[in-house]
Design goal:
Blueprint lengths: L1 H63 L17 E4 L2 E2 L4 H20 L9 E4 L3 E7 L2 E14 L2 E7 L3 E4 L2 H15 L7 H11 L2 E7 L2 E13 L2 E10 L1
Parallel strand pairs: 1-10
Antiparallel strand pairs: 1-2, 3-5, 4-5, 5-6, 5-7, 8-9, 9-10
Helix pairs in contact: 1-2, 3-4
């Protein structure tokens, strides 16, 4: 009889523990969900802001080097790429410009996020940044995968995909204008000033030219595309 009573007591205790655990789970479930939801939202917003900031930096700095993150071999002494070189079209494709912007973000985004010092209550481990850049009409879209493993209150979860970031900028128009300029130059030994003026007026751009290193340096400036208040510039060189 004593053994049976002991067994019954054990079962009752187990049942009480299970019921208590269920009650606690449903009592704090909403609070736990709210906590993780709030943390997730704040962290996602922080990373998306960094993507936008780094993306703008990428566009500006890459524009200063004619659409390159790392200057190509066929460049001037100060790293400006040749788009036209002694009769040949050396201009890279729009898809290659997209890859250069993606490379910039892949390598530089973590400098913005740092060690996630703005989130001292979270243990965050970051993975590799993978960016897909798309140049569209009057804007650039950044689609970034950046896996983050987050540990909070002995619970862990993963954030990997973020909202696409849109940057309103006329890189497509600048690229198309330069491409028209370069194609119009092919087969000519001298600069077609009237052609350059026509392109600038048609697309509301400013085109400056200077001579150095036996080459002509071009700066395309767009007052309608500004990054942190500074008009976007696109630089390249031609050697005739």
């Amino acid at each position: 009889m004593n053994n049976k009573k002991a067994q019954v007591t054990i079962f009752i205790i187990i049942a009480i523990v299970i019921v208590g655990a269920i009650i606690l789970f449903f009592t704090f479930k909403d609070d736990i969900g709210k906590t993780f939801g709030s943390e997730n939202e704040a962290l996602s917003s922080f990373v998306e802001n960094c993507i936008e900031k780094t993306g703008k930096d990428a566009i500006y700095n890459i524009g200063q080097k004619g659409g390159y993150f790392y200057s190509p071999k066929l460049s001037t002494s100060n790293g400006i790429p040749y788009y036209y070189y002694e009769g040949d079209n050396e201009m890279h494709s729009k898809e290659e410009v997209e890859k250069e912007i993606s490379t910039y973000l892949n390598e530089m985004l973590t400098f913005c996020t740092g060690q996630f010092e703005d989130f001292p209550g979270l243990n965050i481990t970051s993975g590799e940044v993978n960016t897909k850049t798309t140049i569209e009409s009057d804007k650039i879209m950044l689609d970034v995968t950046f896996p983050l493993t987050v540990i909070s209150n002995n619970k862990n979860y993963i954030i990997e995909n973020f909202n696409k970031v849109e940057i309103l900028i006329r890189v497509d128009l600048i690229y198309d204008s330069i491409e028209e300029l370069i194609k119009g130059q092919l087969g000519k030994e001298n600069i077609c000033l009237s052609c350059i003026t026509k392109i600038a007026l048609k697309n509301d751009l400013k085109i400056d030219m200077t001579g150095a290193e036996n080459a002509t340096f071009f700066t395309i400036k767009d007052e309608h595309s500004k990054i942190n208040g500074i008009p976007l510039e696109w630089k390249f060189a031609n050697k005739y």
